[in-house]
Amino acid sequence: VGLDTELEFIWLGPTALPADDGTRGEYRSFPVEESLTECVRQIFDHSPLATHFADMDSDAELVAARVSAHLDEMWDGQLDAIDLLRPIFYRNKGAYLVGRLRWLNRVSPIIIPLLNDPEASGPGVHVDAVLLTETDASRLFGYTRSYFHVLCRRPAAVVGFLKSLLPVKPVAELYTSIGYSQHGKTNLFRALYRHMEHSNTRFERARGARGMVMAVFTLPSFDVVFKLIKDRFAPTKRTTPEDVKRRYKLVFDHDRVGRLVDAQEFTNLSFERDRFDEELIDELRNEC
Question: The whole model's pTM is what?
Answer without folding.
Answer: 0.84
